[in-house]
Specification:
Elements (H helix, E strand, L loop, with lengths): L1 E2 L16 E5 L2 H5 L2 H11 L5 E5 L11 E4 L3 E3 L5 H12 L9 H22 L3 H13 L6 H14 L3 H14 L4 H14 L2 H14 L7 H19 L1
Parallel strand pairs: 1-5, 2-3
Antiparallel strand pairs: 2-4, 4-5
């Protein structure tokens, strides 16, 4: 497994695409902040890149550690969101810009901060404020994570009862990430709110097709139960 520094990271010139980044979440790296790094990578990654937790990568003194696959590039000292964004852009960013482009990294981090703020606003029920923040994030055109930002904005628009706007954002996200299961959950939620129960069922089933493990999710089970109750109510009228 190769260990490299930031200037040598890019695999794009060789034509070999990075398909997965694993983040060590073992004890030492966890104490050094690897869970924050895992969250940052997940939020910023393009849809074709898998980001997963990993066991020990064998370099506990240089953590938090990542490994890029299938290249086997071992990357250490990934202790800050800035360092993480630089690594991600070097591996997967826009080939038309410099691999270490400070503006691209800054835009990605700013978009991430806006998105995190928006999620807090959604949790507080401040959907209009969340929608504005997510629109600002999208205007920055970060090199990764756009599908997630569109999904979050769809949730905010659903909270605002803007069903058409929510479905538009879901469609934009699906064009970028057709196998992102959370989009179909959100789509199903919008259809339930609109009373389009047949379409909601199709969206939820598509979600399960992509990620069967969701059958065990309490929140997903609650959605299915709510949908079934809605259908029973309609049939009873």
């Amino acid at each position: 497994m190769a260990s490299v520094g930031l200037p040598a990271l890019s695999c794009r010139s060789s034509g070999e695409q990075v398909k997965e980044i694993r983040v060590c979440t073992n004890r030492t790296c966890r104490r050094q902040g690897s869970f924050q790094i895992l969250e940052t990578l997940t939020a910023l990654a393009p849809p074709e890149l898998r980001v997963t937790p990993s066991g020990c990568l064998g370099r506990c003194g240089a953590g938090p550690n990542l490994v890029a696959l299938p290249q086997g590039l071992l990357l250490g000292h990934c202790a800050t969101p800035s360092r993480t964004a630089e690594i991600l852009f070097s591996l997967c960013g826009d080939g038309g810009r410099e691999a270490s482009s400070s503006s691209a990294v800054a835009d990605a981090l700013t978009a991430l901060a806006l998105t995190n703020n928006a999620l807090s606003q959604i949790d507080a029920g401040n959907f209009l404020e969340a929608e504005a923040l997510l629109t600002q994030a999208l205007e920055l055109k970060p090199y990764g994570g756009l599908h997630r930002i569109f999904k979050h904005r769809a949730v905010a628009k659903l909270g605002m009862l803007d069903y058409c706007g929510a479905l538009e954002d879901i469609s934009r996200a699906l064009a970028l990430a057709p196998n992102y299961s959370e989009l179909y959950i959100c789509q199903g939620d919008v259809y339930v709110a609109e009373g389009q129960y047949d379409l909601a069922e199709k969206s939820y089933l598509k979600c399960l097709e992509i990620d069967p493990s969701l059958r065990r999710s309490k929140s997903f089970k609650a959605r299915i139960a709510n949908l079934q109750n809605k259908v029973v109510e309609v049939d009873a009228t």
